[in-house]
Amino acid sequence: MIDILQPGMLASVQDLGRPGYRRLGIHPGGALNPLALSTANLLVGNPVGAAGIEITMGACEIRFKTDTRIALGGDDIGATLDGKPVAACWSLPVRAGQILKLGIGAPEAPGQAPRQSMRTYLAVAGGIDVPPVLGSRSTDLKAHFGGHQGRALRRGDRLPLGDAQQAAASVGGPAFGVRSPRWSGLGMHAGDSSSHVTLRVLPGPEFEQFTNAARQALWEHAWRVTPNSNRMGYRLEGAELKRKHGRDMLSHGVVPGTIQVPPSGQPIILLGDAQTTGGYPKIGVVIGADLWKLAQAPLNATLRLEPCTLPDALAAWEEQQRYLDSIRATVAALDWSRATLYRK
């Protein structure tokens, strides 16, 4: 069991989502940064799809009611466990009664001010054991089902943990860590940071319907993430993208990463909680391997979009899977079941 002492701006139970229900108008949802949640889960001995907690912009406080093992995914955000620093992508045992606090950011270098970060993921050995709905424990914040009572977490909430035997075994042994996705490459460009991100984009079905100037602007201009953004989508501000002809379109299916362009000419990149269909033209789609970078981009961050081919997109996905496989190999080399339990 864990107690939510302070949920911060927005915290919710999320796993890798509930695909397969678009025909019913139900979006997949789930963690907006699936790579961060998968990494944290592997580091505590969970399957990648176990439920964890998605924490937005830090300022969260959690107390553990039992001995277990935890890991944080996403950017470093000034986290502490009973006052001692906890880095992202580190796996460590915790004792009953210890308190995890997440700040609002962590300096990129000594002496620098904390950088803004968007999302952090907490994985706990055994996973968050809320009842699954349609095959997933993710919280659908729009339809109010799944997760913990179908809503964002509140102060005073208590969340059950699963597989106590697994958790007891994984408590043994020292803390260990792996390189975070940001420092492992995975498509990062020189100069990229939490506030300046380069995303690889496949041309969309309506790409050719836009003017030459608009298509050129898509790649050459910088785009700002506006404050009018959320789990449904990131609204961007930049050059106006115009179509050659303003004819109406029938609604069509859309997926996370789709870049829609409404009549304003200012693009919207859809995320996990977006609607399942839309009638705006699709100028492009962010490749799946780069969605984690988008999820970590804070409000007012600068985005650069660059063209990508399908073979390159598939290669980027395979590179991401190799990163996760390397974590599996690291954890498999451990034998928590034979380690001495962490004691007070």
Order of neighbouring strands in the sheet with most strands:
13-20-17-18-15-14-21
Number of strands: 21
Give the helix proportion (percent range).
Answer: 10-25%
Task: Give the overall form.
Answer: globular
* Helix segment tally: 5
Assembly of the depicted chains: single chain
Stretches with pLDDT under 50, minimum 5 residues? 108-114, 338-344
Mean pLDDT: 87
- Terminal Cα separation, in Å? 18 Å
**Secondary-structure element order, as H and E?**
EEHEEEEEEEEEHEEHEEEEEEEHEH
Percent of sequence in beta strands: 25-35%
Question: What does the largest sheet look like?
Answer: 7 strands, mixed, barrel
Decide which structural class fits the backbone. alpha+beta
Question: How large, in whole angstroms, is the Cα Rg?
Answer: 20 Å
Spell out the key features of this protein.
7-stranded mixed β-barrel, globular, 344 residues, alpha+beta, 5 helices
Write the layout of secondary structure elements.
Elements: E1 2-6, E2 10-14, H1 34-43, E3 52-56, E4 60-64, E5 68-74, E6 79-81, E7 84-86, E8 90-94, E9 99-102, E10 119-124, E11 158-159, H2 164-170, E12 176-177, E13 196-203, H3 212-220, E14 223-225, E15 233-237, E16 252-253, E17 258-260, E18 268-270, E19 277-278, E20 282-286, H4 291-296, E21 302-307, H5 310-332
Parallel strand pairs: 13-21
Antiparallel strand pairs: 1-4, 1-11, 2-3, 3-10, 4-9, 5-8, 5-10, 6-7, 6-9, 8-12, 13-20, 14-15, 14-21, 15-18, 16-19, 17-18, 17-20
Helix pairs in contact: 1-5
